[in-house]
Amino acid sequence: MARLVKIAIAGEGGQGVQAIGDILAEAGNEEGKEALYIPNFGIEQRGGVSVAFVQISEEQIGSPKFKHGDIVIALSERAVARTMQYVTKDTLFVYDSSLIAPPEVDDEAVGLQTYDTVAPEAMADSGSEQPKSGQVELPQHAKQVVGIPATDIAQQELHPRVFNMIILGATVRAAGTDVVDIETIKKALESKLGKKFEDNPKLRELNYNALQKGIELVEKALQEEGK
Question: What's the whole-model pTM score?
Answer without folding.
Answer: 0.84
